[in-house]
Amino acid sequence: SPDTLLNLESAAINTSILTLGCTKNDASWTLGDKIGAVNFFSSDGSGPGALVRGSMALVAESTSGGDMGLSFSTYNNTERVRITATGRMGIGTTSPGYPLEINSAVTGGGMLSLMSTGVEASISHRINSGATTSGWVTGNYNADYFIYSYTLGSQAITFKPTGNVGIGTTGPSARLNVVGVGQANNPTVAI
Predict the structure, then answer these.
(1) pLDDT tens digits, residue range 93-117?
(2) Is 75 exposed, middle or buried, given 0-12, 13-18 or 19+ CB atoms closer than 10 A?
């Protein structure tokens, strides 16, 4: 006997599928109309009262009904995340213009935070065009902040917690330490 009100179970793959559908078949859709949704309702009368607190829904992104996005809503059913029909993901926006777009009206809220229990957290900005890879990696390694160049194949700039900055070196010994690479006698400048 199931422990929940609805339990879908099958020994065969691709069969425990719940389908939510709509038979509407015309061009009179309104942006945001829902084809189907799963609502999460709370009858708790405290706070904002009894209402739908969150949902997952397939929503119209065009008036033809052909373009549908997946919407995720939380806290009093306010939309927070949208995956568009084109595969773009918006956090804080229903119409992202990029593969991943984060918008926030909260000061500092548009920040992307990467946390690691290891020694490195970084972001790669890369262009792969056939045999050539170019771009940068920015991040933290131990206590250092770094910028790595795919073109150089090495760390281009290092920022130490002491305030020292190294260009061409990962161990700057002065506020600004520049080590020339590929120059005659590899000149070094320390300021």
Answers:
(1) 999 999 998 888 777 666 777 788 8
(2) exposed
CA separation, residue 186 to residues 5, 56, 85, 158, 180 (Å): 73, 59, 53, 18, 5
Q: What token pair was written down for 25?
A: 């078949």
Task: Report CA 149 to chain centroid distance, whole Å.
Answer: 23
Sheet-wide strand order for 154-159: 120-129, 132-141, 144-149, 154-159, 165-167, 176-179, 188-190
Question: Cβ distance 147 to 155 under 8 Å?
Answer: yes
**pLDDT tens sequence across 23-66:** 888 888 888 888 899 988 888 877 666 778 889 999 999 888 78
For residue 122, which phi and psi values (nearest 5 degrees)?
-150, 165
Q: What is the pTM of this model?
A: 0.70
Q: Note every long-range contact of 62-71, with CB atoms under 8 Å and residues 24 or more positions apart, other chains counting.
A: 62/29, 62/31, 63/27, 63/28, 63/29, 63/30, 63/31, 64/27, 64/29, 65/24, 65/25, 65/26, 65/27, 65/29, 65/33, 65/35, 68/35, 69/94
What beta strand segments (E) does the chain contain? 34-42, 51-60, 68-74, 78-83, 89-91, 100-102, 120-129, 132-141, 144-149, 154-159, 165-167, 176-179, 188-190
